[in-house]
Structure formats: C-alpha cells, structure tokens
Amino acid sequence: MKLSIFACAAMAFLPASATPLAADASVAARDAEHELSTRQTASGCYYFASPTCCVPTVCMCAGSRIYYVNRDNVNRGLHGCDPPWGYIGTGYTSFPGSCCRIAPDGAVEKEEEDGAVQIIEASPMQSE
C-alpha cells in the first residue's frame, strides 16, 4: 500500500520536472529560410506543409487529422492552429488537390510526369 502511494506521488511530480522550451524556440526544417515554431498550442495542432505532395500549409493534429489554418487568428497575430478551422480529412493525402496517394502497402507515393512512381514515405508495414 505504501509503495503504491509513493509511486502515485512520484508520478504526480514527473511533469513538474520537465524543462519547457523558450517561447521563441524554433528549429530549422527543410531549408534555412523555413522555420517552424516548436511552441505547443492548446489544441495540440501544428503547421504542416508538403510541397512535394502539393499540400499547402494546413494544421496537423493528433491522429494525422488535418484542418484548415484559422486565418482570423493569423490576422490577429495568433497561432493559426489554436484552434484550427474546418476538418479536411485524415492524412495529408486526403487534402483536395494532393498529388500523392497511399499505396496498397501503406507507403505514400507520387506519380511523376513520365509515369515513374516516386516513394515519398516508406510503408509503415515494412520492417527494417
């Protein structure tokens, strides 16, 4: 009994020991001119774009659900994914106008103009 009480108390203090990121923390993504904010939103959503798959900036949320960016918030200087706007679908390939597709094995692929198929994301089904 004492052990379970001690374990519960220890688990309660675990989140307090985490060091938060600074409000202006950012990481480089794709190239030097493209930075994404690492600040967490209340909605848990973040900006996502895939130029390779013809997907403009959208909000990516838990479970790979994608939503439109909240333009009202952006115009007021707030985060466009906190909260996001209308639901689009699950996975960025469900975006209207996406030029990528899901292969039968789960990989994300794109058909080139010459008919060749380019693998964008490997299949989650394949083990390495």
From TrEMBL:
Organism placement in taxonomy: Eukaryota, Fungi, Dikarya, Ascomycota, Pezizomycotina
Keywords: Signal
Residues in the signal sequence: 1-18
Name used for this protein in its record: Uncharacterized protein
